[in-house]
């Protein structure tokens, strides 16, 4: 399977980075100022009160989590698509998010939540283990196909891993008290909520380290477009690169899912859009994916907060990204089948 021919716009990479940074900054400001509870900036500046508490202590950590999660999911989607040379590759579709969610539910079912320091450190670790297990399973199925992994084998493996993970999470939900069952249900729908400082710090650490590995390998990911044999003839150790990228991606996804649950299609929307605009150079795509993914999920979380404010409820952000990414996924699937 090949990517559709891109129609890159010839602009300086620095200009694209500047535009993406500006859009992210504007989105972050809007996400802090707007939300389910109307606040007054004047009252917040005037003195202590509810408005100041919301603007300084409630919304910024949530917005930071949305930005970090969006950045991580987007760069992982870009890396997966380069590694597998498949436009449908995305952590949710591949089952990596499902495996990570299952890993995170185990300590929650045992009563270890993310609000404690132990939980904040343990949940990303167990989610990482689940994500790696799902990655290895999907990768084994894909590599079992002679030559280049087919989109059908990757897609079917990811669907089955997600289905099994969802079934096991549902099973665990029936065995725990109602309060913990509500926590487990979050992993199936995808929520951005106010994280504890420890959870936010651990998520940021995993994403920064994993993203640094992927950014360092951006030039090597470009060589994979030539095919494994051609890349190896140029001195690239494809097997080592594949393992390193898969592990870095699993670290990022595991940390994100341990706090937010299953949020899909960010890693599909952002890389596909950027590749159509900029072309296939991952030295540009990866850093721009970080910025654009952060902007997208922050905007989706803001939309989820304000869309049903008049009903006194909040739409899961996972539903918003699915409504945006689902049609694109079907379009790409139909195009790849032609």
Automatic annotation (TrEMBL):
The keyword Repeat does not apply. Its main location: membrane. InterPro entries: ABC_BtuC-like, ABC_transptr_permease_BtuC. The chain crosses the membrane at residues 63-84, 91-112, 118-142, 154-176, 196-215, 245-270, 315-333. It is a multi-pass membrane protein. It is found in: Cell membrane. One of its GO terms (cellular component) is plasma membrane. GO terms for molecular function: transmembrane transporter activity. Keywords: Cell membrane, Membrane, Transmembrane, Transmembrane helix, Transport. It comes from the Bacteria. Belongs to the binding-protein-dependent transport system permease family. FecCD subfamily. This is Vitamin B12 ABC transporter, permease component BtuC.
């Amino acid at each position: 399977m090949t990517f559709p021919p891109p129609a890159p716009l010839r602009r300086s990479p620095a200009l694209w980075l500047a535009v993406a940074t500006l859009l992210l900054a504007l989105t972050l400001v809007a996400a802090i100022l707007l939300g389910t509870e109307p606040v007054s900036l004047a009252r917040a500046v005037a003195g202590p009160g509810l408005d100041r508490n919301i603007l300084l202590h409630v919304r910024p950590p949530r917005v930071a989590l949305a930005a970090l999660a969006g950045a991580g999911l987007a760069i992982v989607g870009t890396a997966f698509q380069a590694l597998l040379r498949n436009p449908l590759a995305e952590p949710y579709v591949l089952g990596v998010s499902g495996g990570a969610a299952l890993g995170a539910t185990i300590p929650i079912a045992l009563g270890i939540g993310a609000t404690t320091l132990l939980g904040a450190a343990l949940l990303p670790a167990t989610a990482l283990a689940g994500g790696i297990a799902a990655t290895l399973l999907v990768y084994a199925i894909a590599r079992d196909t002679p030559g280049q992994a087919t989109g059908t084998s990757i897609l079917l493996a990811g669907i089955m891993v997600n289905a099994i993970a969802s079934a096991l999470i549902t099973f665990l939900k029936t065995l725990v008290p109602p309060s913990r069952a509500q926590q487990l249900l979050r992993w199936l729908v995808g929520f951005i909520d106010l994280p504890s400082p420890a959870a936010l710090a651990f998520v940021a650490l995993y994403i920064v380290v994993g993203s640094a590995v992927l950014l360092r390998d951006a030039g090597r990911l470009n060589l994979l477009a030539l095919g494994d044999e051609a890349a190896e003839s140029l001195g690239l150790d494809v097997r080592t690169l594949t393992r390193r990228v898969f592990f870095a991606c699993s670290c990022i996804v595991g940390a994100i899912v341990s706090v937010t649950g299953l949020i899909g299609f960010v890693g599909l929307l952002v890389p596909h859009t950027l590749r159509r605009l900029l072309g296939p150079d991952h030295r540009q795509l990866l850093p721009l994916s970080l910025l654009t993914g952060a902007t997208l999920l922050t905007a989706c979380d803001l939309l989820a907060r304000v869309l049903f404010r008049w009903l006194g409820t909040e739409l899961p952000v996972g539903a918003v990204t699915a409504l945006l990414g689902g049609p694109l996924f079907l379009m790409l699937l139909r195009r790849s089948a032609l």
